[in-house]
Design a protein that fits this description.
single chain, 155 residues, alpha+beta, Immunoglobulin-like, five-stranded mixed sheet, 10 strands, 46% strand, globular, binds copper (II) ion
Length: 155
């Protein structure tokens, strides 16, 4: 147990290092899942954004393992990650169900979500196998005109 905890702490350090050094979407293979990390950032006028502002997912390569989104909130306010049309896969009363992605992350907190890839795949089929875009933002601190970030799912 100790070993597991220590090794995942190492992974977190590696992700943060990548985020700082490249400023680009952080993706890493944990060995059993594809993990994509988002970080909340406070901006002007009491607003907040989730970074990176754009994530590109390729169904052909990124759907081989479970897809996990991680949300880091290093700020002193609670933020919410909301992405209309995107679903997460959760276990409820022993059943695997899908529910819309709307995740609350407390100050200095971290949450994870297993994204429902089947829903993404059927969204892609619905648009003829092309590209699907999902918007994401914090509904608590979103500017009126702000479309938010986007997750682009392509082939
Ligand atoms: Cu917020």
């Amino acid at each position: 147990m100790n070993w597991v905890r220590r090794s995942s702490a190492h992974l977190v350090v590696i992700y943060l290092g990548l985020a700082v050094s490249t400023g680009s979407p952080v993706m890493a293979l944990t060995g059993w899942a594809k993990e994509i990390a988002f970080v909340a950032r406070d901006v002007e006028d009491q607003q907040a954004v989730w970074l990176p502002g754009e994530i590109i997912i390729h169904r052909s390569t990124d759907f081989r393992e479970p897809l996990i989104f991680r949300f880091d909130n290093p700020t002193v306010r609670t933020h919410v990650f909301e992405a209309p049309g995107l679903f997460e896969s959760v276990e409820e009363n022993g059943l695997q169900i899908a529910r819309p992605v709307r995740i609350t992350i407390p100050p200095e907190g971290t949450e994870q979500s297993v994204i429902d890839r089947n829903r993404m795949a059927s969204d892609a089929i619905a648009v003829g196998g092309g590209t699907v875009t999902y918007r994401f933002y914090c509904p608590l601190h979103r500017a009126d005109a702000d479309l938010g970030g986007r997750i682009v799912v392509g082939q």
